[in-house]
Amino acid sequence: MLELEDHELVSLYINGQENAFETLLYRHKDRIYNYIYLKIRDHAASQDIFQDTFVKIVQTLKKGNYNEEGKFSPWAMRIAHNLIIDFFRRNNKVKMISETSSRNEDFNIFSFLEMPEDNIQDVITKEELESQMVSLIDHLPETQREILWMRLFKDMSFKDIAELEGISINTALGRMRYALINLRKLIEKHNLVTHF
What we know:
CATH topology of the largest domain: Rna Polymerase Sigma Factor, Chain: A
Helix content: 55-70%
């Protein structure tokens, strides 16, 4: 079984050979679980989503709705990705702003981190806020999160980001803007900053 291609295993499983699915599971489980965990950062939740992913895969195959012959892995990853999105929708009530849904609110995240005095308490508070905000970045939509990481943590120019992502500089700027707006919503939701 191990030498068979994914589409051959899918076909065997649909035709009643249960062990063909075990081979598929064994072949793809690590990649799918790691993908889920990198997005969720919680082992228990990742295990749940991982199991839900394979339940959904089995249900879809048994109903005969699988039609992506030869592309099992990307199809399975898409199912996992959709379940991750559902997880965040259920557990995070913050409505994110997409690049196409807002026209206002210029926002600079660093204005929230500026402290009037540089005493030790201020420095500790600032470091705590920065640490909490880094964890909030994981909750942003993927395109916005990637732009934010490249710009703030890799210190890439918008020109370099645009070239790497295959987008225009204006699109890169727009994604950064919406990432900052959404980060502000998360900050407000989690009460990280008391004075705006």
